[in-house]
Amino acid sequence: MRKAAYQLLETLYDRDSQDLCDIDRLVGEVATNGLSDPDEEILSLNLVILSKLTDRASMVVLSRVE
């Protein structure tokens, strides 16, 4: 279920549906919950999402990664 939720977030972000996604909240979710998930597949998915977020909103990512 967690994997499906993160895949949905990635799909929304990829389709330029940023009006549906709060970038700050998305980065917060990935940085706090996604990167601490014990499942390696979910962790990898979150790293991909974080990489994509870095391309478009690098300052938001940098401010939340600390």
Describe the structure.
With 66 residues, the protein is mainly alpha-helical. The protein has one domain. The chain contains four helices and no strands. The protein has helices at residues 2-14, 23-32, 40-56, 58-65. Helix 2 (23-32) packs antiparallel against helix 3 and helix 3 crosses helix 4. The protein is globular. It starts with a helix and ends with a helix. The model has no long low-confidence stretch (mean pLDDT 84).
Descriptors:
66 residues; mainly alpha; 4 helices
Give the count of structural domains: 1
Residue share in helix: over 70%
Q: Find the count of extended strands (DSSP E, 2+ residues).
A: 0
Flag low-confidence runs: none
